[in-house]
Structures are given as structure tokens and as C-alpha cells.
Amino acid sequence: MTASAPTRILLADDHALVRRGVRLILDSEPDLTVVAEAGDGAEALALARVHAIDLAVLDVAMPRLTGLQAARELSRRSPATRILLLSMYDNDQYFFEALRAGASGYVLKSVADRDLVEACRAVVREEPFIYPDALTALMREYLQRAARGERLPGSVLSAREAEVVKLIAEGRSSQEIADLLVISVKTVERHRANVLAKLEMRDRTQLTRYAIRAGLIEP
């Protein structure tokens, strides 16, 4: 990308109306242009393979793969691509998960018209963007953990286990999950058993509640 070229953006959100609104905001700026749109995390990753992009703007909660899962894979596959996550949730957990997934910024949909353009520009400049209301919560979280001598915890589940939990919570059968992830049914069942043991849970209902709290699916 040259100094005069606009930032090429991949936009992913499973709601077409939201995508349209976000695209209007971005395309109205001379230094930003949306070159590809996706309806879920898996489609976003596929499009990232065939489009030259500088920035991925991903919704946190999407079908098949969430924005968090797509961000994790995209940051591994293409470290130079900047990532910005969009969310309707003002939630500390989602924010920290976004950072762990490789995102450089987190924008609330409720104030996207105010913050989104600034966030995109900051992230492209390799500067982190934190929505203003998160600063107090962020400082409080770190200070409390530092006072207790703790570090921020890593994710309890592996990336593959999180994928399986998400699909279970969406009501998919073991065969459907196996087909989607291109693994055997036996492997799906093993992941399910490992997850239940790790989380000390018994059934799909409890896994679904966990998936909502962890931002894998929308409530």
C-alpha cells in the first residue's frame, strides 16, 4: 500500500443491514475503501485469501466462525493484516479476548458512527484503539489483578475446542460438526468430552450458556 492509496478493508458481519451501514461510513472516507464483504468468520477467512487487504473489520459474534476465531486465524496466517473487532457488547471479557485474538482495536456498534473511522486509522498506523468507555474498566482490571499478583488468564479452551463448543451451542449434530470442521465424528465426541471435563459441565445447556458468556454465540 502506497502513502496515497486508500486502506483496503475486509468487512464481516452476519447482518446485511449492519454491513451496509458500516460500509457507508467507511466508503465515505477518501482514505478507506471496503474491497470485500463476508457474512461469517469462515467466509471472511476465505475472502482474505483472494483479496489484498490491509485491515479486517470483524463482528465479534457470527455464525460458523466468530470474529474472535477468525481474528485468531487471520493474525496467525497474515500478521501484517490489521484487525479491528466490532461488538454490540460493552463487556470486559470480549475486549480482552479480542486482544488475545490479535486485534488492535475494539469498537462498539452503538457508537460506530463516532469511533469507527478514527479506530480504522489508528489501527492502520499500528496504534491500538480502545473505545473511551473501556479505559476505566481496563485500568481497574489490571490494577486489581496486579494487586492480587495475578496475570490475565489465557483461554481455557483450545481454538478447536472453542469451534466445537460454538457449533454444539448452535444446535449442530456431531455429524454436522464433523462435516463442517472436516474431522471425524469420533474426534468431535472426543473434543466434546474434553470440553465438558475442562469446564466441569454435564450437558449441551451448560455449554450453550458458556458459549454465550464467552462471546462464541449471541444470546
TrEMBL record:
4-aspartylphosphate: modified positions: D59
Key word Transcription present: yes
UniProt-listed InterPro entries: CheY-like_superfamily, NreC/VraR/RcsB-like_REC, Sig_transdc_resp-reg_C-effctor, Sig_transdc_resp-reg_receiver, Tscrpt_reg_LuxR_C, WalR-like
Keywords: DNA-binding, Phosphoprotein, Transcription, Transcription regulation
Keyword Flavoprotein (UniProt): no
Source domain of life: Bacteria
Chain ranges of the HTH luxR-type domain: 150-215
Domain Response regulatory: 8-124
GO biological process per UniProt: phosphorelay signal transduction system; regulation of DNA-templated transcription
Pfam families in the record: GerE, Response_reg
GO terms assigned for molecular function: DNA binding
Full protein name: Two component transcriptional regulator, LuxR family
Protein species of origin: Geodermatophilus siccatus
